[in-house]
UniProtKB/TrEMBL annotation, chain A:
It is found in: Cell membrane; Membrane. Its main location: membrane. Residues 123-419 form the NADH:quinone oxidoreductase/Mrp antiporter transmembrane domain. InterPro entries: ComplexI-like_HydComp (IPR052175), NADH_UbQ_OxRdtase (IPR003918), ND/Mrp_TM (IPR001750). This is Hydrogenase 4 subunit F. It is a multi-pass membrane protein. Keywords: Cell membrane, Membrane, Oxidoreductase, Transmembrane, Transmembrane helix. The chain crosses the membrane at residues 65-83, 104-121, 127-146, 158-180, 200-220, 241-260, 280-300, 321-340, 376-398, 410-430, 451-473. It comes from Allochromatium tepidum.
TrEMBL record, chain B:
This is Formate hydrogenlyase. The chain crosses the membrane at residues 12-29, 36-57, 63-82, 103-123, 129-147, 181-203. Its main location: membrane. It comes from the Bacteria. It comes from Allochromatium tepidum. It is found in: Cell membrane. It is a multi-pass membrane protein.
Amino acid sequence: MAPLLLTLLTPLIGGLALFLVRALGTAGRLNLAVSGLTLLGSLWLAWTVAQVEIVAGLGFRVDAFNVYLIVLTAFVGLTTAIFSRPYMEHVQASGRISVLNLRLYHGLYQAFILTMLVALSTDNLGVLWVAVEGATLATVLLVSLYRTPEAVEAAWKYFILCGVGIALALFGTVLTYFAAQLVLADTESGLTWSVLHAHAAALDPTVMRIAFVFLLVGYGTKVGLVPMHQWLPDAHSEGPTPMSAVLSGLLLNVALYAVVRLKMLVDGSLAATDTPYLAGALLMGFGLVSFVVAALFLHLQRDIKRLFSYSSIEHMGLMTFAFGVGGPPATFGALLHMLVHSLTKSAIFVTVGHATHLAGTQSIERIRGLIRTQPAIGWSLLFGVVAIAGFPPFGVFTSEFLLLTATMQTYPWFTVVLLSGLAIAFAGLFRHLHPMVYGTAPEGQMPVSANLLPVLVHLGLVLWLGLSIPGFLAEWLDRATTMITGGGLL
Amino acid sequence: MSLAVMPLLQQFVVLMAALALFLSFVLLAQTRLVAAIHVFAWQGALVAAVTFTVALTGHAGHLYFSALLTLTLKALLIPWMLHRLVRRLGLERHTEHLRHPALVVMAGVALVIFSYWLVLPMVEQGLAFTRNIIAVSLALVLIGLLMMVFRHQAVAQVLGFMSMENGLFLAAVSATSGMPLVVELGVAFDLLVAMVLFGVFFFQIRESIDSLDVDRLNRLKEVE
């Protein structure tokens, strides 16, 4: 229990304290310290889970599935905090933001991390909902931080669309609770995931079927599934770059995590009916459409941050599809993909943040010759994109390869769609990347001070995961796979 | 099971829910903002009354608390906040021109029918009460959604959002005799924070486009 409390209370107390800090330098350092302590807490938690399988209590429950996401969230939270300190100083120096908003920024940053950690570790579907909605509320002011008309518009769209989506998810949650009341003796525990999971087979399939549609559309809005993805590119492109890194790298994962947890319930409930794979089929459909549409939209982008937000939609679609396919290899691949995508995507957004400082614009057409002006940024962007496009030896290749093999075994025809989608996405990314990295640098483009440590660490980890997955991690993911599908891969 | 053989309290709950649904329609086609806020407050009061009635039937003690919470939050606090915002934004006399109001009301009717159709197989094993109440709450949610889609005024959209929440709460209270207290408190807290943020956004939007007509927020495009 102690490690869990450390993980959750640190961002809570730290976040509250950060609302009070005036000086930007102090706030940045405190933010860093709080994030570091959260990471330590999560590592301790992971170590405990490795010993005792499940840490539960006070309505929280941490097992192999969510503990790796908790560590990932705390880790990316820390590296993004490292990036955000000089970044926000630069933003302040450029006068785009008021002092009040800067104070808000750090407090809300920790509030956002906190809501995600709560969503991941709670055992209660209602609290999960509250936390995911809380994550929207924590970030919505950050998206409009610069107060440009575009930023306000993006934030309003994000607020309304995610608010509506998540309201539908609440209706699904209510229906789930209703189904639980018909079978559980102790109605108070009707939203406790572990209790529900134990009684999944008894839940009324008709109610659960309808509930899952609401839940999928609701949480799917936050995952960024097409056609509920409209908020995502806007929020990513108009908000401050550290926000884009954590939105893409973490929040989408959390929403997908919720969908997968609920799918486990519905699968249990529908197993004995004539449509046992309904939930999986829905995930496959939404996932595939998102994947293909996002891959095509990559070609049309003019804004570098929108470009990579579409790449996020593409990868979330791929993961959703893989969870829909089900079975140990696809699920293992999807879990691994969640990890490597988060690491790579947040690294890319950090690089993009520096690249836009360097060029003074987010327009792809005007970002040119990064490698000539500042080789470190150019190479980082190049390697980041190579990694996200799924080239060996990076980890994304490993997980995508697993997904493709799994699809080949179960639904061979979909492999064609997946491969063409990957090729389209690859082309979309590289046609934009090449001139940005190698083109002729405009006159007078000067190097900026950049902290590429987070990028180096993230890409290093992704490379490591591509070359060899460490034993303990593989065992972890395998345990999660066993939990989700009933059988392991290893 | 026909309506006549339902216990009196259940009949009362269904009546209240039906009135709440009626108010959703009024909200949908109400052009004056201040009047719409009042309608929303009455809807909140009805939901609170339903909660109180369900608490009386003795399912769960914490429902008395929920009823009080709903009454304070949905019938008093949020309408008061909206009212104050509307006054500070100088929109007291604002009326919104609605395009095709008849069509929108028809769409609302279609949504009610759809809701009943959707829950038909769900509770076929009896329970006329549960079926009615779930269908009505779903209709409230969907009409709130419809309102957010077709109204262009930011305050009206927020009213649609909040009336969606009313529908959700109605479902939670009457079909399942209330969610666990920690969840209800969490949802209420989220709602309150959302309302404060909406207030902040009204001013940000007006600052950026000099109006609260959200249709004019159209700078961001898929492809430039």
